[in-house]
Amino acid sequence: MKSSMTRALALAALLLTQTLAASIAHAADLSLAQITQALVKATPDRPANFAQRDLVDFDLSGLDFKQANLQGANLYGADLTDADLSGTDLSGATLDHTAIIRTKFVGANLSKASLVLPAAFSTLVASPAEAPSFVGADLSGARILGHFGRGDWHGAILVNAHLEPSASRVTTTAWTDLTACNLAGANLSGADLTNAHLAFANLRAAKLTGARLVGADLSRADLEGAELAGADLSGADLDGTVLRHTSGLEAVKGLDTAHNLGRAIR
User: Fold this and answer.
1) Distance CA 163, CA 194 (A)
2) Under a CB-based contact definition with an 8 Å cutoff, are residues 114 and 132 in contact?
3) Torsion of Cα atoms, 162 then 164 then 81 then 172, to 10°
4) Which of 32, 161, 237, 243 has its CA 20 to 30 A from that of 80?
5) Which positions ≥6 away from 235 have C-beta within 8 Å?
């Protein structure tokens, strides 16, 4: 009995030692000063490399990342307010619960990244002046959930992106809010936009082939010239939705169950 107790205590001590060692190693992994220094030294030919780095809860506000490599980086809870991440590689990165007020993701690679419940505004009111910019960004296969109203996403690539509520996550929001966003020319082919709020959104010439828009709020959204073949609009709200010159409307699924179809503008 005593021998078993001794072994248990020894094992507990070993585990505690390993945990403390890992904690110390993590703390010394990268400092804000080192990040800033790497960005200062970065050049277009040799951008800073933070791939797979753990940047949890870092205050990175106002920094210019100069097309840095952040592939697979963990930025959970980081403050990216006013940061410029244009052209950066954030593929596979975790950006859950980040602050992204006025953050620039222009042309960034966010494919398969996770952007769940970020703080995009300083108040509960969505302000265009504070909205992050995703112009031309690649968010294909990304997981996106949160409030992004009035933001600029024109030309963004959201092929097979997941913007639907996830039953596997405990969240405080049941939808992705893209109200009044500029998604003109965006590629949302195969994207899951179940229950998404897209009221007043600019979706002109957007590609929505095979997109899942079940229960989505598309009231007053402008889809003129959009491609809709294979899209699922079951239960979607089409009150005042502009559907002029769209292609593939005859191949849309669930159109007969959409709400306010008779009030859509065709």
Assistant:
1) 7
2) no
3) -150
4) 161
5) 214, 215, 254, 257, 258, 259
Q: DSSP letter string over 117-185?
A: S-B--SSSS--TTT--B-TT-B-TT-EEESB-TT-B-TT-B-TT-B-S--TTS--S-SS-B-TT-B-TT
Cα 129 from Cα 140, distance rounded (Å):
26
| Alpha helices by DSSP H, the chain | 2-27, 32-41
Position of tokens 């010159």? Answer: 245
Q: Are 88 and 71 in contact (CB under 8 A)?
A: no
Name the residue type at position 67: Q
- Give this prediction's pTM: 0.87
Q: What is the pLDDT of residues 85-123, one digit of tens each?
A: 999 999 999 999 999 999 999 999 999 999 999 999 999
